Fold this protein.
Amino acid sequence: MSSVAERRPKAEQTSSLRLARAWFSNPWARPRFLPLVTWLYVLWSIVPVIIAIQFSFNAGRSRSTWQGFSLRWYLDDPDLSLLHNPLLRSAMGQSLKLALFTMLIATPIGVGLALGLARWRGRGSGAGNFLMLFPLVTPELVMGSALFIVFTTLLTFVNLGTQAQLLGHVTFSISYVVIVVRGRLFAIGKEFEEAAMDLGASPVQALRLVLLPMLAPAVFAALMIVFAISIDDFVISQFLKGGADSETVPVLIYSNVRAAPTPALNALVTVMLVFSMLAIAMAILFHRRFAPGGRGESAVRDFARLEI
């Protein structure tokens, strides 16, 4: 009896070990630690940002000791607040100006390149696709130094500052537009265009009335991506800046972070974060409003009615 009683706990222990091993090793079971890891990562990423935003409302000059709530660093301080400090306002204006102009220039070029590269079949198409991806795989430090050499030795008519920074931002942003739009192009296929042309539409009408409306969510997403990348860029903006009037927000933060900055710098970062979040919210709302498969299919049906 004693031997049976001794074997029973051992058998129960072995069974428990097998159940535990199966619980951990089953790849098809419900994820157990993924939500925990995800929330830990989210907290690790967001908590420092929340702390930085909090101290932008600090009443004192400290960026580590809370001294009460105030809008001093946004509006009230007559010399150092974001509203009254010309250096901070200039950096914010430069970042927004570069981001907006980069959006307006890089997105149409990227959409045209995406359409051309998606339909290019023949000699040189592989090299064209590789060159389109080249800015993505090139280290930004190499890209910045190369553009600096080009603008200071070859294209000397381009002045360092806003002109050079804008050209640099457009150069590396076009690839992101092409990637996003080409992905949507491959998902759409050629069926809608071919159907529209079979029903009497010209190639230009099929492109304008069918394909471009279906590409609208991808184009808007590309706009927002270009905005976020441009407004956040540091390396190329640093290499190609001229004087203090061409300093962007990332460059200003880098040049002041080792000194003793006031919470006004936190206020500047908070405002730029609000702009980025508004852009993301607009992209989400636009995507929900103009979901893929709406206006393009409606145009095809209109051509069908005309044909009938």
Observations:
- DSSP finds 13 helices and no strands in the chain.
